[in-house]
Amino acid sequence: MTLHQVSAALQRPLPGLTAQLRMSPQPRLGSERILDPFLDCRRAGVLLLLYPGDEGLCLVLTRRTESVRSHQGQISLPGGSLEPGETAVEAAVREANEELSVDPSALTILGQLSPLYIPLSGFCIYPVVAYAARRPAFVPSDIEVAEVIEEPLDHLLDGDTCAEEVRQLRGQEVRVLFYRIGAHKVWGATAMVLCEFVALLSGD
Questions:
Q1: I need a labelling partner for 145 at 20 to 30 A (CA). Which of 64, 65, 96, 198 fits?
Q2: pLDDT tens profile 121-165
Q3: pTM score, two decimals?
Q4: Cβ atoms < 10 Å from Cβ of 163
Q5: What are phi and psi of 32, to 5 degrees?
Q6: 59 has which bridge partners?
Q7: How far apart are the first and last CA of the chain?
Q8: pLDDT cut 90: percent of the chain above it
Q9: CA-to-CA distance for 122 and 142, rounded, in angstroms?
């Protein structure tokens, strides 16, 4: 997958909630609420950052520390809440700088994916896709980032990275779909965002 192909894909209509729900835990209540224009939620920008690696384009994820306020220990895209007057793009870029010391001036914004409502935390996340011409020298924040995870984009596009299992969540059995990325199981909202990106790139 090349940068030109990614840029071209982001000019097409987004797959949206239909694609996101392919990697949603089942049952999952409240997913459709992002379609409500009057939705009262905490809004956040997250950054899907691409950059050159040894195996082509890579993207970066983080494992959150146990001390952050929400989604402790989970695998996520860099990001956080919008500050007053901020756009999703501005918030996503600022948070990537705060969490990983990514230089905002080194980024080219390629586009945005569909917003996603997270019922458990009450967040609406707005994914932003960006490109850095060189691999950033990631310096993780001790407060927010326990681990930096880098993954070749072509690995994510490989259907063999997808798997599922049944877990006990909040007192009920839930079918959890996830991406196998290194030693990690990437599920929940992060997997749903990545699934829409994969669907867009593959034309599915």
A1: 198
A2: 888 899 999 999 999 999 999 888 999 999 999 999 988 899 999
A3: 0.91
A4: 12
A5: -70, -10
A6: 50, 151
A7: 15
A8: 68
A9: 25
Structure tokens at 204: 């599915």
- At residue 30, does pLDDT exceed 70? no
Pairing status of strand 184-187 against strand 172-181: antiparallel
- Residue 167 is which amino acid? R
Residue 83 phi, psi (nearest 5): -85, 160
φ, ψ of residue 38 to 5 degrees: the values are -105, 20
Query: Thinking of the domain 3-154+189-198, which architecture would CATH place it in?
Result: Alpha-Beta Complex (3.90)
Cβ contacts of 22 within 8 Å, gap of 6 or more: 177, 195, 199
What is the bridge-based pairing of β-strands 123-132 and 42-53? parallel
Cβ neighbours, 10 Å, residue 118: 21
Greatest CA separation found in the chain? 46
**Among 118, 156, 135, residue whose Cα is nearest residue 42:** 118
- Answer yes or no: are the C-beta atoms of 88 and 77 closer than 8 Å: no
Nearest CA among 96, 69, 80 for reference residue 43: 80
Token readout for 53 is 């690696």
Instruction: Work out the number of other CB atoms within 10 angstroms of the CB of residue 79.
Output: 27
Rounded distance between C-alpha atoms, residue 131 and residue 59, angstroms: 9
Q: Does residue 170 register a pLDDT over 80?
A: no
Give a three-class secondary structure readout of 163-196: EEEEEEECCEEEEEEEEEECCEEEEHHHHHHHHH
